[in-house]
Design a protein that fits this description.
- By secondary structure, the chain is α/β, with parallel strands linked by helices.
- The strands form three sheets. It has a seven-stranded mixed sheet, with helices on both faces. Strands 10, 11, 12, 13, 14 and 15 form a six-stranded antiparallel sheet that branches. The chain has a two-stranded parallel ribbon with strand order 6-9.
- It has ten helices and 15 strands.
- The chain folds into two domains: about 200 residues, Formyl transferase, N-terminal domain (Rossmann fold), CATH 3.40.50; about 120 residues, Methionyl-tRNA Fmet Formyltransferase, Chain A, domain 2 (Roll).
């Protein structure tokens, strides 16, 4: 039995699982999907074509560049939502839209709030060596991930996880929470729990140029750096003789010593490219260039004529600090 009309606002990969959960729910009528125009979506990492999926099921679609613009709000109002689910959306929802649905707007954040509020929470969690993350379902307010908690579920971050594998599990957690809570939300039975502000932290925004690799960090930290920014994101990167090299994959490092200065290639074989770090060595297994976006590291090394002893670029201290969310962006270019 349907208890109300639900509109989904989403653009990046997590919204697909939410779409399926709403579509399958007997608790609601799927009233519409709001997503980015193709032009706006091209500027956001990880966007998916949810509009086509909605159209396949005859669900109305509203394409927006700015969801808070008057014409966007008017189009959503016309869908007459009782509840709006915001999933896989990177921009804040303003008060006019928050106050539009009868039962408000619910949102999801890929962390165990109030820990890791802000942008790219899974990516930052992996970069920082955290071993657990999760998904929080909340009633949205005008703050940044400060709304009352409706539900919350956790997932481990395993040594070989990437941002993609963790986000896949996070999306599944979100879908299960949506399934379990749609009925109570539409019936007005949910009492959100206030977040503990004493445990809150706010993550800085990440942009592609922040993927520059500091070879002075430990092998484990660099492995985390690479897997946190791999597909579907732009990737960690370094430079060799002025040419940019994207670092897509590495293997969890062992306990080897660093036999050379950080950034020095110490071995090239069929397993990949072994590079010295500030503590230990790391095996890079997949890389990319402007000509060949994805190559096995051994194949790239053969094409580039790379030999043992080559040095990968070490960025400046200012650039490293900015890449870790500390300080302003340097004026120099990468």
């Amino acid at each position: 039995m349907s208890h109300g009309r639900v509109v989904l606002i989403g653009a990046v990969h997590e919204c697909l699982a939410a779409f399926d959960a709403i579509l399958a729910s007997p608790e609601c009528e799927f009233a519409g999907v709001v997503t980015l125009t193709p032009e706006a979506g091209a500027k956001v990492s990880g966007t998916v074509d949810i509009a086509s999926r909605a159209s396949e099921h005859q669900i109305p679609v509203v394409l927006v560049e700015d969801v808070n613009a008057p014409q966007s709000v008017a189009a959503i109002r016309a869908l007459a939502p009782d509840l709006v689910a915001v999933v896989g959306w990177t921009r804040l929802i303003h008060d006019e839209l928050l106050e539009l649905p009868t039962h408000g707007c619910i949102g999801f954040h890929a962390s165990l709030l109030p820990h890791n509020r802000g942008r790219a929470p899974v990516n930052w969690a992996i970069i920082r060596g955290e071993r657990e993350t999760g998904n929080t379902m909340m009633l949205l307010n005008s703050g940044v991930d400060t709304g009352g908690v409706v539900d919350q579920r956790s997932t481990p971050i395993d040594p070989e996880d990437t941002c993609a594998t963790v986000y896949e599990r996070v999306a599944a957690l979100g879908a299960s929470m949506l399934t379990d809570n749609l009925g109570p939300l539409l019936r007005g039975e949910v009492v959100p729990r206030r977040q503990d502000e004493s445990r809150a932290n706010l993550l800085p925004k990440r942009v592609p140029l922040m993927g520059v690799t500091d070879w002075r960090r430990s092998a484990q930290e660099i492995h985390d750096w690479i897997r946190a920014q791999t597909d579907p994101y732009p990737g960690a990167f370094t430079h060799l003789e002025g040419e940019r090299l994207t670092l897509w994959r590495s293997t969890p490092p062992g306990s080897s010593d660093s036999p050379a200065a950080p950034g020095t290639v110490v071995a090239v074989d069929r397993t990949g490219l072994t590079v010295a770090t500030g503590s230990g060595t790391i095996l890079i297994t997949e890389v990319g260039t402007s000509v060949h976006p994805h190559l096995h590291a051994h194949e790239w090394a053969a094409r580039a004529g790379l030999s043992v002893g080559a040095r990968l670029d070490q960025p400046s201290d200012a650039w490293v600090a900015w890449s870790l969310g500390h300080g302003p962006r340097p004026e120099e270019t990468r």
